[in-house]
Amino acid sequence: MKRREVIRNLSILPVAGAVFGSSLPIESFSAATPAEKAPKRDFFKELGVTPVINAGATMTYLSGSLMMPEVLDAINSTAHDFANMYELQDKAGAKIAELLKCEAAMVTSGAAAALVLGTAACLTGSDREKIEQLPSLPGPQREVIIQKSHRYVFDQAVRSTGIKFTEVEGPDEMEKAINPNTVMALFFNGALSWFGVPDSITHEDFVRIAKKHNIPTFIDAAADVPPVENLFRFQKTGFDLITFSGGKMIRGPQSAGLLFGRKDLIEAAKLNNSPHECPIGRPMKVNKEEIFGMYAAVKSYIERDHQKEWQDWLDRIKHIAARLEKIPTLKSETVINPGPANALPGMIVKWDQSKVKITPKEVVKALLEGTPSIVAGDRGDALGIGVVLLRPEQVDIVAGRIKGILEKAVV
Q1: In the prediction, which pLDDT does 36 show?
Q2: What is the pLDDT of residues 376-401, one digit of tens each?
Q3: pLDDT, tens digit, for every residue of 36-85?
Q4: Which terminus of the chain has fewer Cβ atoms in its 10 Å neighbourhood, N or C?
Q5: DSSP H or E stretch at residue 316
Q6: Where are the beta strands (DSSP E) in 273-359?
Q7: Which CATH class is domain 306-408?
């Protein structure tokens, strides 16, 4: 019997008492109850890591976002038992697919892993031999269509499967570029936000041309909620595969993501992923707690009162502005990123630097190096303040620190 068959059939194993034998009671494995509860460990202090208040954005280097209480509950409540990972991925995926109103879904180790696994699915289908051969399939190199303005740092995840990109501009070029070696068409939804260059092919035309030639389409929308409607929009447009990050505004585990869409491709993506032993996705393993946590995060995000949450963000901006309004010459402004990526409200603050003799860059440095450490944005002639990732009690801390720094610089 192969190892994977043994793993799949854990239910046939004897119960724990029979395995360990009657000479060693199961109770002896339990730790003694301590007489007094041990003091809570400060792991930041223990490791010498500085905790940071994020008055910026959902940046991976800043550990993404903070998980919702429901997500932490899901993680903590499932950490004490084992699970068959094939069963868990299937059943969690089915529940997430119900929530997203799509054919199928799976939890990945971030949106970047979803790019790898979705591309792998288009390359191999359910062919076990091809799965084992990736990224070195025999024959001509397979191709993925992408708009020239959509080339970005994360397309390396797609290239890691062994494909090469064919860059196109406009529907006509896309039509002509498709050939027998074309296996997929990739759309980077945040390209306009990143580069300020309009898409040369609309979502609808991109899907229409690909479907005409039976080429699967994949859209990377990693940072593109809110609005919550985006979780449903792209499948309605007709994209076969969709990915969102779990660790941004969905506020699930930072190392988790979503891949969802066409059932046959999701099933093929699973075959290319852990816990299978040899595929390209084996190093991209997601633990059981993250899968439970991602399910809880999606459910929580969809059920959230998004209007109330948006108003709360605007109220935070108003509160900070009120704290700063007596600084000479200071002006604050609410800004709303139009998206599609990071379509969130924030604020910018400006002042006359001849009256308040400090630059935004110097304020950012002072905030970062102070206690507590606060990350904010340098907009050149303005200070950028993000509010959506602050804990409620941190709003006043950020306002107070900025006020103190600026007041000391008043001439």
Answers
A1: 60
A2: 999 999 999 999 999 999 999 999 99
A3: 667 789 999 999 999 999 999 999 999 999 999 999 999 999 999 999 99
A4: N
A5: helix 306-324
A6: 331-336, 345-350
A7: alpha beta
CATH fold of the domain at 82-303: Aspartate Aminotransferase; domain 2 (3.40.640)
Instruction: Reduce the secondary structure of 67-99 to three states and give it as a string.
Output: CCHHHHHHHHHHCCCCCCHHHHHHHHHHHHHHH
Are 231 and 260 in contact by the 8 Å Cβ rule? The answer is no
First to last CA, the chain: 80
- Answer whether 294's CB lies under 8 Å from 96's CB: yes
Dihedral of CA atoms 363, 366, 309, 336 in degrees, nearest 10, equals 30
At 180 the three-state DSSP class reads coil
Q: How far apart are CA 408 and CA 411, in angstroms?
A: 8
Separation CA 370–CA 348 (nearest Å): 21
Q: Which residues of 1-19 are buried (b: 16+ CB within 10 A; e: fewer)?
A: eeeeeeeeeeeeeeeeeee
Domain with CATH 3.40.640.10 in the chain: 82-303
Q: Which tokens go with 267?
A: 């099933």
**Torsion over CA: 153, 154, 159, 160 (sign):** positive
Torsion of CA 365, 371, 375, 379, to 10 degrees: -40
Q: Region of 51 please: left (phi>0), alpha (psi -120 to 50) or beta.
A: beta
